[in-house]
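User: Round two. Same drill as before: sequence, then structure, for each protein.

Assistant: Same drill it is. First protein:
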Amino acid sequence: MRALGILLSLLSAPSLLSCTAPVEPLLEVSPEAPRLAPGQEVQLTVTRRFPGGGIDDATGRVHYASSNRELLGVTPTGRLVARAGTGDVLVQVTDPTTDASALVAVRVVATP
């Protein structure tokens, strides 16, 4: 009976209980707002910043998706490839291990 009382007191201790949601890491993508002409390419770099101060290069571990694949292609490694045409495209970068995400606005222009 004494063990049950100790267990219950430990479970109700405020330092052991938390009602806050876990804080996800942030993704920082560079370059932040690239401008490309058709045929040009640029490599994105993704840095994952953790709440405790840790950072790591997540470029090869995140997923990339272009909002307009006819205008701007993106490889699985984060290389952007501008195709024919002009306009604005969003690239979504998602970390599958933490669900952290970031958006990059890319402008495809007629000439560099």
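Second protein:
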Amino acid sequence: MSSNWPDLSAHRKAASPTRPRKIAIAVVSVPMLLDREINTMSAIGASIEAVRRNVGPMIVWAALIALFTVAGLTTFYVGLAVTLPLIGHATWHAYKDLIAQAPKGRRRKAGAGASAKRS
């Protein structure tokens, strides 16, 4: 039976250069897409701009997300039931503090999500 540790190590080294870019894209773009009628590229641009204006806090934010995720994984995934909703809730409030006060884009009405548009 062979070990997969070398494969995981190689994947981590290959993914490391793109990790900050992925975090910058996702910081507030997902909550923005849920909250406003805005296209994906505009949400990504706003997310990158928010990270550019707040580099220090965003580094701490990414480290905390990694820490909470590792803590959830080390408890055999049981801890993720606590940490993932906590991260999601904190992400929503980060979006509200960083972006939501700016009057860009129209707000979605309550219940006007993707499932409501299908009917």
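The first strand starts at residue 36 and ends at 37.

User: Perfect.
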